[in-house]
Amino acid sequence: MKNDTICAIATGATNAGISIIRISGEDAFTVADRIFVAKKTGKKLADRKTHTLTYGNIVSDNEIVDEVLVSVMRAPNSYTAENVAEINCHGGYAVTKKILELCIKAGARLAEPGEFTKRAFLNGRMDLSQAEAVIDLINASNEDAVKNSVAQLSGKLRNKVVALREKILKDTAYIEAALDDPEHMDLTGFTDELSVHVNEEMSEIKDLLSGFENGRLIQNGIRTVILGKPNAGKSTLLNALTGTHRAIVTDIPGTTRDILEEIIVIDGITLNIVDTAGIHDTEDVVEKIGVEKAVDEIENADLCLFVADASRALDDDDRNIIRLLDGKKAVVLLNKSDLSPVLTSDDLKKACNREVISISAKDETGIDIFVEEIKKLFGFGKLGKKEDFYISKLRHKELLENALLSLKEVLKSIDLGMSEDFFSIDLMNAYTSLGSIIGEEIGDDLADKIFKEFCMGK
Amino acid sequence: MDHIYETYDVAVIGAGHAGCEAALASARLGMNTIVFVVSTDSIALMPCNPNVGGTSKGHLVRELDALGGEMGKNIDRTFIQSKMLNVSKGPAVHSLRAQADKQEYSRSMRRVLENQERLTVKQAEVSDILVEDGHVTGVRTFSGGVYPCRAAVICTGTYLNARCVYGDTYTYTGPNGLPAANHLTDCLKKLGIEIYRFKTGTPARIDKRSIDFSKMEEQYGDERIVPFSFENTEESVKREQALCWLTYTNETTHDIIRKNIDRSPLYSGNIKGTGPRYCPSIEDKVMKFPDKDRHQVFIEPEGNYTNEMYISGMSTSLPEDVQVAMYRSVPGLENAKIVRNAYAIEYDCLNPMQLKPSLELKAIGGLFSAGQMNGSSGYEEAAAQGIIAGINAARLLKGLDPLILDRSQAYIGVLIDDLCTKETHEPYRMMTSRAEYRLILRQDNADLRLTEIGHDIGLIDDERYERFCLKKKQIEDEIKRLKSTMIGGKAAIQEFLVSHDSAPLKTAVSLGDLITRPEFDYYSVADIDPGRPELPREVCEQVEIELKYEGYITKQLQQIEAFKKTESKMIPENLDYDDVPSLRIEARQKLKTIRPVNIGQASRISGVSPADLSVLLVYMSKFANKN
């Protein structure tokens, strides 16, 4: 019924050699062109002939995400009989999902379960004998979707969404009641109250979104960079981590960049250690790759481990690193704390304004404390682990982001000094987005709320 | 004994606000029309509040006028006070409301009906609708007169099996003591139509001379009057305005009510009908909102011809002695003499889900229904349905497609779609929050939205249409001019901006851009707009709104585009839902009852999930290929 442009991962949601992200709809090529740069030719996909492959990079914020092949299939000669672009990428879970997210940001909507098939049928690509099967498929997928959105949703998240909706509805109903009955109800001063509420709601949604981010990190690993001046003990730490714990060490040659990652699993959490080669070789990321590159690495990292040396006084190298940590999730480790320290835990704490964990990489003491600290930082344990409701999660994330956007619009209208009737448009949009997460439609919620909460009418 | 009289094209049953519009539209579209009324004195009667319009209802009246209806013109002729509500809010929720002189309103409408070509007014109670082969063939009056006709419109309002109640006093009458219509329900039931029982109520009328107005706040009308009808101007409707007053209930009032609550038929269970939440009785307000220590009471004249005052906000069905005590506890009403007691009224109406969006009954060809009969409340809601039913009865007989306004075109569209699609368990009242696209559905642009349609149908004459086209062109030209008039960083311009606390320009912008700044509007940039033409006020108003709210308007227009897509996916009328595999039981039942016209309407039925819609869509394309 909608002919907007949709996207989804067409291959299974597991780590595989190659994954395909399919984009279908009128704007499929425009969407793909927003995130894709063809190598050498620089040609737009929109200008490519049907049934061709184009080689290039998926790019986000000028950073290359993956090296890919994109097939272009023009309507009606495609699976859905619409314009279809298929991005063949390197199958890593994280990379595939990242590209999918980029497609959504570029204007595509995440496909409903079975939607490609449905479109294929509706566009006359399938013969009639397949119709029943399509219906079954849609039904089955729909049940999955319901399970995902309702049952698999943790009670906690659900309750939070319900509570958020209730708050939004209450304010909207107040506005609407006053608009419908201006002689009985006055909105003077309500805008201030509303803006406080909207800000609260936005921060709650942001919390939920960061929860999803943490969920992603549980599944795909925490991109971690280890920082510290030469001889602070970074490689000793790395060896301690890989040595004492059952470690899976996989070298993944970067397909699009010359950086290596090492994956370490400790106590259920996965750390993707960035540029370990650099650490092994020179023991100094900052020195080897230069401050500029280090800034980039830190920027892209989910977590920074700063290893300070207790046997030496704080110097400019340390202070540089501390500056770089600003605004990042970081754990500060004071290594060599078994020796009589020149640099004390308190001094370091003061210098970087963060908690300091004393360890001895050599004796492998303090490691468990710092692993706990990582868990705390990412809120692990609060969220369920490893359950594969990845698609619905992304759907939820998209919906939460929509709700957030709508609430931002409310604040914008307030700032512009618009009258209250403009607020309810976006408030109801936020309400609808949140409702889709828990599978509820609006129906007559607003009218019911108005009548229930406010004494209306003459 | 039956007597067969002359044949009509269309018979309209009832001449309230729905019936008047239906009869006029039908006759004006060339149909030989007869309208039946229980008493010719009750044509266009306002049995409850003395107002026309109000929030969202004012929108309905202006839309009705743009289509060629009568209500707007009639209230313009007979109002005694006029007020634009919500003027401090955005243009979408500005709403016009007028106090009517009830008797003048009724008389004036009666004259219009009586002088309408091809329209016959007949005082008689219709007791039967004659149906052959699933199609209307005539109506029979209680006295045995048979009037053959090809279409009929039921506009019986609150008269069907009506019963008025206060305390333990029951009268089997319609509003204002007029005779009830006690036979038609049986006929409708026999025809297989599902009937609901609804209730509503009205407050007491009090003798003006017994009221102490010094204890109340005066309520004035607007100085600049906006007429309801687009045919009228501010000047043409200017007149001396009447006053209204505001007072409040208090804890004493509430105590009286609470002490006697068991004597209210609403609470004792003697009233079975469902009342509107929007117009609660005072006992409902007190019982359901115990935290409110006072409720507003507006004292409004019933007209210039009478001393009766309408006590707005205090409708009740409490017994007479409690009513007297209750009203007299309100400041200014201590010595009040009640002319007419407040009462609740119960009446039969039909389940509107039995209607097509054209307001024709699905089960009976040529039989239409409009107004409170369809479970709505309010004069304006009734009139809006009346004109649509009248138009569509005429169009049916002419072999034309029905006029169906959708939710993005008009409040009338929202009203009818809600009635036909959503389950109604109480009298339905229009509200601006029910309109998804209210920024587009404004009262000020009702003519821009609907005059074209009214003209196409044949209810708007060429002269009015040409005036409308000129206005439209003036608006478009002026917007274009403002958007293409660039102003640069000239010293005079910058000075002007600074003097209005507005940021100086860095690059050239258009006057249109400047108007979007919060500190400016169309009028305030006149000083730096030497090329501005002299334009009528209503043209300037449109230009201002279109430019000022452009961003929001564009957003709504995009939503409308998406909405139109689902509205245009029509569901075949002969589709058998039992043949559609995999529909959930609840969805199948709902779809079978409501038989939505398109996928959009289907999506608004509660109990029909997105998955059901997918199944339906898949089935529909299979169905289309088969046929």
What does this structure look like?
The complex is a heterodimer of chains A (458) and B (627). Chain A folds into three domains: 106 residues, Gyrase A, domain 2 (2-Layer Sandwich); 125 residues, Four Helix Bundle (Hemerythrin (Met), subunit A), CATH 1.20.120; 155 residues, 3-Layer(aba) Sandwich (Rossmann fold), CATH 3.40.50. Chain A has 15 helices and 14 strands. Chain A has a seven-stranded mixed β-sheet with strand order 3-4-5-6-2-1-7. In chain A, strands 9-10-11-8-12-13-14 form a seven-stranded mixed β-sheet, with helices on both faces. In chain A, α5 packs antiparallel against α14. Chain A is flat, with a radius of gyration of 26 Å. Chain B is an alpha+beta fold and 627 residues long. Chain B folds into four domains: 310 residues, FAD/NAD(P)-binding domain (3-Layer(bba) Sandwich); 139 residues, Elongation Factor Tu (Ef-tu), domain 3; 74 residues, tRNA uridine 5-carboxymethylaminomethyl modification enzyme MnmG/GidA (Arc Repressor Mutant, subunit A); 58 residues, Orthogonal Bundle (DNA polymerase, domain 1), CATH 1.10.150. Chain B is built from 20 helices and 23 strands. In chain B, the strands form five sheets. In chain B, strands 1, 2, 3, 7, 8, 9, 10 and 21 form an eight-stranded mixed β-sheet that branches. At the A-B interface, α3, α4, α5, α14 and α15 of A face α17 and α20 of B.
